Amino acid sequence: MSDSRESRDGDLPVEDDYESLPPTASFATHMAAGAVAGILEHTVMYPVDSVKTRMQTLQPDPRAQYRSVYEALSRIVRTEGPLRPLRGLSVTLLGAGPAHALYFACYEKLKHRLSQLLQSRGNSHIANGMAGGVATILHDAVMNPAEVVKQRMQVYNSPYRGLWDCVWRVCRAEGVVAFYRSYGTQLLMNMPFQAVHFVTYELIQEQLNPGRRYRPDSHVLAGAAAGAVSAGITTPLDVCKTLLNTQEGVAGRSLSGVADAARTVYRLGGAPAFFRGTWPRVLYQMPSTAIAWGVYEFFKHNLS
């Protein structure tokens, strides 16, 4: 539990720890901290995310087959230009700010409400997992269209000139539904991802930081571990999501959902295809979640 100090009149204890922020701070405070964390998370590791998308392609162009993250980045920069790994970043930042603002704010409020219901005192891991799952629904509703545009711009030899060209051409050819075709798969992946993520983060925090004080090292380490574990577990669903977003390797029809995508993945590459891009996905998520938690806890501490 948080430490306390005496108030100025010597009568009432006052919380002296930033962990007192969640139940008392405004929704806007959590949203501001979450928005900054989300934007930095996606910006710093975006080139690795671009590599992950390409390595998950089931029928890659011979000129876009890579053995490692380093080789992929080197070849992309050398043959397509130094800014190519950042293509699609603008739409990601447009979505990441509001998506993460809702995500962290919803998580903090629900975590404390559910913990009070399920466990009168202390931290409830069930509440953490449930809060993370519900927060994901809001996050993905905002982020899914941005993911579709981003991944279509990341693939090798993408036909789109820019963000709005991609939006316009996808709308005209496939309709608005194309931006939410992978929403079910995204939720199916992200709800267990975030549940595992939050539970792992809170468990490690209990070991490294039992006093729940502001300790940047514990937040960063716990965030990195939580991201790695969650990313590895959910890679098969991420492969299906990428296929639904890009529709690459599918001729004459559009894939309609996770079952259709899973059948196509298996048909084109067998069981190993579900684990394409596992290493770049883990490599992306570890520092990304470390950055997100480090920045979020920093702003939460200072805004208190």
Automatic annotation (TrEMBL):
Q: Where are the residues of the annotated region Disordered?
A: 1-20
As for membrane topology, the entry says: Multi-pass membrane protein
Q: Which reaction does it catalyse?
A: Fe(2+)(in) = Fe(2+)(out)
Q: Identify one Gene Ontology CC term for this UniProt entry.
A: mitochondrial membrane
Q: Name one GO biological process term.
A: iron import into the mitochondrion
Tell me the keywords, alphabetical order. Answer: Ion transport, Iron, Iron transport, Membrane, Mitochondrion, Repeat, Transmembrane, Transmembrane helix, Transport
Q: Where are the Solcar repeats?
A: 25-113, 123-207, 214-302
Superkingdom to which the source organism belongs: Eukaryota
Matching Pfam families, A to Z? Answer: Mito_carr (PF00153)
**Chief site of localization:** mitochondrion
**Recorded GO MF terms:** ferrous iron transmembrane transporter activity
Q: Where in the cell is it found?
A: Mitochondrion membrane
InterPro entries the record matches: MCP, MCP_dom_sf, MCP_transmembrane
Q: What are the Basic and acidic residues biased-composition ranges?
A: 1-11
Family affiliation? Belongs to the mitochondrial carrier (TC 2.A.29) family.
| Protein name, per record | Mitoferrin-1
